[in-house]
Specification:
592 residues, alpha+beta, Creatine Amidinohydrolase, Chain A, domain 1, Creatine Amidinohydrolase, 28 strands, 35% helix
């Protein structure tokens, strides 16, 4: 069935229900960034496979709203689909709320599956539509009627993450959470975000590709912990352990009925940005609600000493895999055919050789030449470009280990480069170093630091559309809040113990894409009469390709940083390599 046929079927069902516009988000009921196939209705209806985007379908029009990471990809995938692309953030491009207000009429009905929209966004949408007398219906689940061959919910089991990796037991985490609840006056804490549940319970799963989480809900009260999960995911030993610890197990599908029956005098803590609007609508109306950022979001964003030490171990493993891959690439390119796809598979195979490896942390972005300019380029075997002995190759990848989650981008010179390619590469490197070397007072937010990664590019009239840094989970999701380093202010300060990415880039359509990404740990630096100051420790261990650098554009401090970084990479990685690989590493980390 083609995309136009699917749109026709959806519109037919809309007509029978009196719905004038239907909104399709990218989320599942847990607001996951990367949902399981069971929830990828937006992808099924449109053919667009990017991780972010909202589709609106009316009787005679359809549009996709997505951000700059996916502009090129969306243009390609939406061809002949009947769905127009709206580039979020571009001048004179309305957001989908504004578009609905202009294109519909008073008395019209807009519908959305409320399970796939946050409480906050649902309220904003309802408020926007109410101004023009348009009604919002959050109880429309049209995918259930339209989606033929819908994949079932995953049924894989869960496994326990040993305290030697995470530092705190379930009991200790729950005790900390209950103390925080008490301070806020809450009797019930409703948790729907899958990474938060996995973190609290020290369990991991495989329901969502690349993300070691499992479908569930969790409600913590003053004296009870209620877990909503399909029981077949639990082994008898896990079930017994949960019972011994007083954690009561309910069916996953019983969650909404359960919360409807909470006591009227409950005081319920809920995060309006991490819980869906159907959850709020199901809670007893008389119950008091405390809406604020999730306690768990705050707790897990600041890694404890055990998690940090394990992250360092994961970085060595990942660094070894990366160096083996880069050594292989350098010694194979031009001698046998390598494609973007086969290169990505080869890197995964090197990671798989590492102990406690649980798979990649996201779909590897493997882009040669102009494909590297597609920020979230999703390579396919049948359309992958062949790597040639010239130009730049960008590979953004990561691994899931018991010790931690990794995310690294390297851009590699496969042969001769133009002056433009070298200049752009060096500007990206200057941005990476600029952020890495930052020293900043307590209370600093990501928006204050973002310019450090961009200012060298700005001087050349160059910019990039994505953020500079995101948080990362401990053997959890590769993108984790609440912190971010980007031009938009989210009000979250960068605190000691947070691990973030540092990934400036330059993308020139049809030419090349360049990104250099390391993970950085926020640590305390000094205390002065002006207060306490923070700085970053670089965790990622992998050479940066000196062949692509125009060293005349680097100042002495930047050269010193690069030399010191490469010395550390060599010291940490060399014990795990053979003689030939070590010779390659010595050359790749030589002083400039």
């Amino acid at each position: 069935m083609s995309t136009p046929d699917r749109l026709f079927k959806l519109r037919s069902h809309m007509a029978t229900l009196g719905v004038d516009a239907y909104i399709i988000t990218s989320a599942d009921p847990h607001l996951s960034e990367y949902p399981a196939a069971h929830w990828k209705f937006r992808e099924w209806i449109s053919g667009f496979t990017g991780s972010a985007g909202t589709i609106v379908v009316t009787n005679d029009e359809a549009g996709l709203w997505t951000d700059s990471r996916y502009f090129l990809q969306a243009e390609q995938q939406l061809q002949d689909s009947g769905i127009d692309l709206y580039k979020q953030g571009e001048k004179d491009v309305p957001d989908y709320k504004e578009w609905l207000s202009v294109n519909l009429f008073a008395g019209n009905v807009v519908a959305v599956n409320g399970k796939t929209m946050t409480i906050s966004e649902y309220r904003q949408l309802a408020k926007s539509l109410k101004k023009v007398d348009i009604r919002l219906d959050g109880k429309a689940f049209l995918e259930e009627d339209v989606w033929e061959g819908r994949p079932p919910l995953p049924e894989e089991g869960i496994f326990e993450l040993d305290v030697k990796y995470c530092g705190l037991s379930r009991e200790e985490k729950i005790q900390i959470i209950r103390q925080k609840m008490k301070e806020k006056g809450a009797t019930h804490y409703v948790i729907a975000a899958l990474d938060e549940i996995a973190w609290v319970l020290n369990f991991r799963g495989s329901d969502i590709k690349y993300n070691p989480v499992f479908h569930s809900y969790l409600i913590i009260t003053e004296n009870q912990v209620n877990l909503f999960i399909d029981p077949h995911k639990l082994t008898s030993s896990v079930g017994k352990k949960l019972a011994e610890e007083g954690i009561k197990v309910y069916l996953y599908n019983d969650y909404y009925e359960f919360i409807k029956d909470l006591l009227q005098d409950s005081i319920i803590l809920i995060d309006p940005n991490r819980a869906n609007s159907t959850t709020l609508g199901s809670l007893p109306s008389q119950s008091a609600k405390i809406e604020q950022e999730s306690i768990i979001t705050q707790l897990k964003s600041r890694k404890n000493s055990t998690e940090i030490e394990n992250f360092r171990k994961a970085m060595i493993k990942d660094g070894v895999a990366m160096v083996k891959f880069l050594y292989w690439l350098d010694n194979t390119i031009g001698k046998e055919e390598i494609t973007e796809y086969s290169a990505a598979k080869k890197l995964s195979s090197f990671r798989a050789e590492q102990e406690n490896y649980h798979g990649d942390s996201f779909n590897t972005i493997s882009g040669y030449a102009g494909n590297g300019a597609i920020v979230h380029y999703a390579v396919k075997k049948e359309t992958a470009s062949k790597l040639e002995t010239k130009g730049l190759y960008l590979i953004d990848s990561g691994g899931q280990y018991s010790e931690g989650t990794t995310d690294i981008t390297r851009t590699i010179a496969l042969g001769p480069l133009t002056d433009e390619e070298k200049t752009d590469f060096t500007l990206v490197l200057k941005g990476n170093i600029g952020l890495d070397r930052a020293v900043f007072p307590s209370g600093t937010r990501g928006v204050h630091l973002d310019i450090l990664a961009r200012q060298a590019m700005w001087q050349h009239g160059i910019n990039y559309g994505h953020g500079t840094g995101h948080g990362i989970g401990h053997f959890l999701c590769v993108h984790e809040g609440p912190q971010s380093i980007r031009p938009q202010d989210n009000g979250v300060e960068i605190k000691a113990g947070m691990i973030s990415s540092n990934e400036p880039g330059i993308y020139k359509s049809g030419k090349h894409g360049i990104r250099i990404e390391n993970l950085i740990l926020t640590i305390e630096d000094k205390e002065t009469e002006f207060g306490s100051f923070m700085k970053f420790e670089t965790l990622t261990l992998c050479p940066i390709d000196h062949r692509a650098i125009d060293s005349s554009l680097l100042n002495d401090e930047e050269k010193t940083w690069l030399n010191n970084y490469h010395e550390k990479v060599n010291q940490r990685i060399s014990p795990f390599l053979n003689e030939e690989e070590n010779a390659w590493l010595d050359n790749s980390t030589k002083l400039i």
